[in-house]
Amino acid sequence: MLNKSELPSLFEVLSDPAKTFEECFQKFQKFIKGDQQFRACSTLCYLLENNLLSKSQRIISFYILYELYRQEKNTSTPFDAVVLSSIQTCAHHINSATNQVGEDNQFKAEFKMLTDFLVSVPKMSKQPVQQYIIEVEASKDPIENPITDIKNYFNLHQQNMPKLTGPKAYSLTGILREQDDQEELAPPEIGISPSGIHEDELQPHYFPPNFLRPIPVEEEENEGDDVDYLNDELDAIWLIPGMVPEPYWDYSMSSGFTTPTIKALLTKANRAPLKDDEMKTLFRALKIDPEIVFHIGMTPQKLPGIVMNNPQAAYELLFCMTHTHQITKYYDALCGMKLSPNTLEVFNMLSNAVELPQEFTHIFLKNCMEQCRNSPEKNTNRNRMVRLFCVFMLSIIKSKQINLQQMQLEVQTFCIDFANVKEANSIFKQLQSDQQLKNLTSGGGAGHSQTPGQ
């Protein structure tokens, strides 16, 4: 696979969904050449199998894997297993999707693209990646599986693969990333960054299972000899070479909860709302031992799901990390989330509990304003979103959590863009009032200005 220094080039290719598929592939060939391309594809397979890429990054990755071998005469490629496995995962989720809005859409674009690769020559090379995803997900046509029997493709792939025998056929990777069962999760809203991948994950280390060892020969003891229990225990260490077992203390043993229990609750919170008793158990664990948040598999990639389903739990988890250096990663994830009542609620609770960095607050507000402008919703729904954000921003201004003058240009432009919304006018008047007060204080006089609706 690629080494740590080569990863940024690969992620630069994957992180630009505004480009067409063809442009992404050309960029891949420009940045990654020769034998690097096979290692890059192996890295892509690792990222895909571990569900570390966002939806658009996955689409670009599969297109690169397809296009790189499209002109080959071979009937299969070294990466067919990842493609076939992903088709099965997509089909499983689409067939078992509940009535939640957009649940099957999480896999719709990927499923269509992969099945098209197997049965025809796709014609999306000139189309921007993001536009392709939006069009497929917006289509009201039912999702159909053009492959009647995918087992035939699996059998063909197995026939072309080299046969492994002995311990290598049952070996395991040396590095196992701690995460939830990926078959139960949709692609994360924000893919992993190159800095989030450990160097050891990129090494092709494998180890076979342990072989059975002969039973140690038990030494005979003469009658009358003192029994040395310490040496008797040390004699067995050779059964596990290089490892001296030590006790692992479970400090939560008498507190009414265990680390695996809280980890299971976190996994559930990422997928669905928790019950009241489950929420109380999670909050009690965090209150007794705030450090437990670092031992239950919490990652920035899980934050969007927890905010969507359990905003109160998201706040408690973030609050436990506010005084650690890891909180910046979660701030970045919160800034990049989709604007929703739950997102604003979590931010509001967090800002009332701790003093947030000003730069984080500014980035969060700018992102919300940008989403309001670029929202594909109809005017009624978009105005509702703008009104929700304006009410939130008025509360931020009232509590003096930001200096409005530092964002004067962005806020003023936003208010003018949505002059038909009453709450946007209120923010504009507040901005003008602060400006006039500042002019009076500095002796510059109070200027006359109009609201954006006048």
TrEMBL record:
Subcellular location: Cytoplasm; Nucleus
Pfam families assigned to the protein according to its UniProt record, in alphabetical order: CNOT11
Gene Ontology cellular-component annotations: CCR4-NOT complex; cytoplasm; nucleus
Keyword Membrane included in the entry's annotation: no
UniProt entry tagged with the keyword Methyltransferase: no
Keywords (A to Z) from UniProt: Cytoplasm, Nucleus, RNA-mediated gene silencing, Transcription, Transcription regulation
Any single GO BP term: regulatory ncRNA-mediated gene silencing
Coiled-coil stretches noted in the UniProt entry, renumbered to this chain: none
Domain of life of the organism encoding this protein: Eukaryota
Family statement drawn from the similarity comment of this UniProt entry: Belongs to the CNOT11 family.
The protein's name in its UniProt record: CCR4-NOT transcription complex subunit 11
Species the sequence originates in: Halteria grandinella
